[in-house]
Amino acid sequence: MPLLAAGTVAPAKHLRQKPKLRSGNLVRPDSASTIEGISAISQAVDPQSRKAGEGEAQRTAPFSFRLLASDGHARRGEIATAHGPGATPAFMAVGTQATVKGLASEAVRATGADIVLANTYHLMLRPGAERIAALGGLHRFMHWPRAILTDSGGFQVMSLAELRKVEDKGVTFRSHLDGATVELSPERAIEIQNLLGADIAMQLDECLELPASRPELERAMRLSLAWAERSKRAFEAAPPQRALFGIVQGGDDPQLRMASARSLVAMGFHGYAIGGLAVGEPQEVMLRTIAEVAPALPADRPRYLMGVGTPEDLVEAVARGIDMFDCVLPTRNGRHGLAFTRFGPVNLKNARHAGDPRPLDEGSACPAARDYSRAYLHHLVKANEMLGAILLTTVNLSYYQELMAGMREAIAVGTFAQFRAAASEGWARGDLAPV
Amino acid sequence: MPLLAAGTVAPAKHLRQKPKLRSGNLVRPDSASTIEGISAISQAVDPQSRKAGEGEAQRTAPFSFRLLASDGHARRGEIATAHGPGATPAFMAVGTQATVKGLASEAVRATGADIVLANTYHLMLRPGAERIAALGGLHRFMHWPRAILTDSGGFQVMSLAELRKVEDKGVTFRSHLDGATVELSPERAIEIQNLLGADIAMQLDECLELPASRPELERAMRLSLAWAERSKRAFEAAPPQRALFGIVQGGDDPQLRMASARSLVAMGFHGYAIGGLAVGEPQEVMLRTIAEVAPALPADRPRYLMGVGTPEDLVEAVARGIDMFDCVLPTRNGRHGLAFTRFGPVNLKNARHAGDPRPLDEGSACPAARDYSRAYLHHLVKANEMLGAILLTTVNLSYYQELMAGMREAIAVGTFAQFRAAASEGWARGDLAPV
User: Fold this and answer.
1) B349/chain A closest Cα distance in angstroms
2) I want to staple A230 with a disulfide (CB 3.0 to 4.6 A). Which of A65, A186, B287, B404 is the partner?
3) Cα B194 to Cα B158: distance, rounded to the nearest angstrom
């Protein structure tokens, strides 16, 4: 299987040109942030998705990554999957249990999302990967016709499961739902992700919290490499249009990180993730690690920073060469009354919003940020109304996507430094400016 | 104030004609069940609604009711309000705390709703009627540019508040939120509803649970009549385009009901509600009471059955001359995993749906009923995901609106009896038919 032949690098002289999409009849990722957008995609990409009882449509477009522009270390690119493109730098909304909490798929798409992430750990336990496969795969199950990335389940085993035991063969744990004993090996993690039908699968890895001792970090890194090798072998049975990413581990130790990266690159993956960050270390350690690891990864493959982060984290990581992100912050914080805006975070629980007629951001492209007063959002949050969570989740995902789109545009025209400075100034300004 | 001059009765020979709307540039209530629909309305009816900091637009269109057709006792009509029309028979979704739980206003409109109900009791306690008025009124606050009916607060005082004391002057109670002592008189109930900006306000009444003794029923009925008189006087200060409905009480006692209806009609209201039903009595008692009271109400005024009910209740009450309904059943049961469909209720919690690839109703106009398998809905409900509540609320409100639209059409063409029989057959069929 020609795993390394999938990516293509645009010649340097084309770097500043407007990106071209491979599939002419796909909706442009930057312009399709509408209900109509997802309907068009639904018909163009996934004509079978509405018919129950059929197998998943056979898709033959191969996974690929094109680097379209760069500006310093920041990169503008385009992922192509059998379920449509993903403009990078990309933020992937988290749809843990086959749903981005509080939003129907059309609403997720309307925020500007190309790709969503789903959690293997949760779905293998409920409703089960075999069940989802029997129902036509995860895209049909959750009515999301665009690209899906699944994690391997490893991270949640470490953070959620009880009585876990990590061995060379894999990890054994007790389900947090019913206490059942479950085994997860590199091979089973790939099998599950294949059953789900993920466009991008992740190798099983072991992710430690920081701080951790060097021997512990080295042990987990070496185990993750062994699992990477086995994941890659297991993935040879996957349909050819799907992709597998390896995961760089090694904690905050530069030597371990470089050893991990070099070994993974030697194996060859469609893309490379940096795992084991944003797990307790200071931001500067995270950014230093990214700056060290990213240049060791091939320029023609996407680089995915797992589980990160704040708007500032995203901009700083893009500045260091990262292409993809996922994080629960915009969705989880939205459910808890916090809005992310161009002018920094706004805690709608705060009583000072109770009589404020201003919307969160009149200049936003997101109706939820324009159509409702802070007073109304405060009321919904205080009254524990679902609509508060829904609107703030929408606002936050839209702001994250707006930030990514802004970075993509800035990189394409060579103004990323200015964009970075302006974003930083906006966050510092705060939302307390007079009406 | 010419309270009785608002309604007009269409001549009998026109009863079977297609309804004509009064405002040519309003979106047709039966055809506007789309996101586009609410935008058009939003611009046509409420151009100021998106601008913060302005007072509520002055609206001058008077409240009116036109009877457009009848078929047996069933009536097809049209309410006109300053915030757009309401086709009757109408089902009003319940937006207790200034939100129909789980749905943004565009999504409520997309189910086909013309009018929503909001609860005075909840809003007077949080965020407060004066606060909502200062923010431009309830329509702007909840971003709902169409008609709003508010109840008087009386029913919730009886069912939710602690330490309530009913006296001639009004009711004193402790807030269920913070224990504060609050007074609600007929005059204050009207003042609150005026501050909210309700298109249709309700008189304060006392609603008893059934069974209740005849002396108790008579006392509450007479008190409600005295409060009706005071409510009407207080309402003279309201802007002229708004409407006030009186409420017939009297429990399951026909004599008391008739006395209540006659006295209210003598006072004169824009519309008449039947309260104090669906409060513990058998369905046949409710239907018998409706059949007795409805003919005692003026034909040229809308008749509103408060807090009712199941799909069957709605059809049977329309058959007895009711024009308007509100009920928490479609929203509350949706949040608890129950779907209302043409083929009866479906409990998505049930394990038999776990592998069922069929949507709830392939023939529905509601995407939530078509685009998601029962297996997915079951998964969402079992996983306690917000999206389960959101989709089932959408399915249920859409089905209720579809049922109302079906009744309206059948009454207009004189086939209500057939519609009623077919609906009943559908519910009896169940959803277990082979795929």
Assistant:
1) 13
2) A186
3) 22
